[in-house]
Amino acid sequence: MRIATWNVNSVRARGERIAAWLQRSDVDVAAVQETKCRDEQFPTELFTDLGYEVAHHGLSQWNGVAVLSRVGLEDVQVGFPGQPGWGDPEAPEARALGAVCGGVRVWSLYVPNGREVDDPHYTYKLRWLEALRAYGAERLAEDPQAGIALCGDFNVAPQDDDVWDMAEFEGSTHVTKPERDAFTSVVEAGFTEVVRPYAPGPGVYTYWDYKQLSFPKRKGMRIDFVLASPALAARVSGALIDREERKGKGASDHAPVMVDLDGGPGDESSAPGTAGLAGA
DNA sequence: ATGACCGTCTAAGACGGA
Predict the structure, then answer these.
(1) Beta strands in chain A (DSSP E)
(2) Measured over all CA atoms, what is the biggest interatomic distance in chain A, rounded to whole angstroms?
């Protein structure tokens, strides 16, 4: 079974491109972030026409998360228990959607950006990650064998090698110790980041700014991850950051990230001739 | 070449992104 996570930066601006990528990449389950639309604006038919079921949660032109699956989509959860809110009055944003697909609970997560270190949005980001850790820890305490994938744009570069030049990030969000500690806490709650072993750095990223020729100059950040529960991590057989999809006109500023799992629907051993992911 | 921001809301700039 092949799962993917991708911050698409508007599903309306890029729907055809997303659909073509899904089909070309033989993806079974996709966790999608930054759809930038309300539910009634989501181009559902683009994906149902390809055999995917669709769950989307979007409240405005901001944020928006979806799960697309062709291996079943059940028990949809809008947000996770304890998810912090934003605004006045404070309310949860459209940043988390979970569904059980092919026996795996797949979460599409869009962690708040943080904006600036001295911005209230930064503390919101830290609270959000702490709440995610607490939720994940609770789920694993209830069922240590649960297959859970925390997929998404974490908006944290956990290691110095995850940005092109640490000196350029002096005083910036995404690389501060509190953010990295918050990310590490989710990992230490039992969720292994399963992509890095197959796509090691340095110089391997998932995001490149649209500005200043960042992509051709290879100035990127690794901020999109798949964090797997112990039972799920044991099934991972490969992973790939598809930087080809960042090329050309009409690309998202994030690349899709794919992970292959042994067993479950679409297992390679039961589908001869299907090539697995080779890694970086 | 992979090429010098992009998307949304709204009608010219503001906001968010990271």
Answers:
(1) 2-7, 29-33, 53-57, 65-69, 74-78, 85-86, 91-92, 96-101, 104-110, 148-153, 192-193, 207-208, 220-221, 224-228, 236-241, 257-261
(2) 54
Question: Is the pLDDT assigned to residue A271 strictly greater than 90?
Answer: no
pLDDT of residue A88: 84
The gap between A140 CA and B13 C1' (Å) is 48
Nucleotide nearest A212 (Cα, C1') = B4
| CA/C1' separation A227–B14 (Å) | 36
User: Which pLDDT tens digit goes with each residue over A41-59?
Assistant: 999 999 999 999 999 999 9
Residues with CB under 7 A from strand B: A 7, 9-10, 12-14, 34, 36-37, 41, 61-63, 112-113, 115, 121, 153, 155, 173-174, 207, 209-213, 215-216, 221, 223, 247-250, 253-254
CA→C1' distance for A214 and B3 (Å): 9
| Closest nucleotide to A156, Cα to C1' | B18
pLDDT, tens digit, 9 for 90 and up, residues A67-76:
999 999 999 9
For residue A81, the number of C-alpha atoms closer than 13 Å in the C-beta half-sphere is: 6
Q: How far apart are CA A193 and CA A86, in angstroms?
A: 27
Q: How much is the mean pLDDT over chain A?
A: 94
Cα distance between residue A233 and residue A32, in whole Å: 20
Q: State pLDDT tens for residues A158-206.
A: 999 999 999 999 999 999 999 999 999 999 999 999 999 999 999 999 9
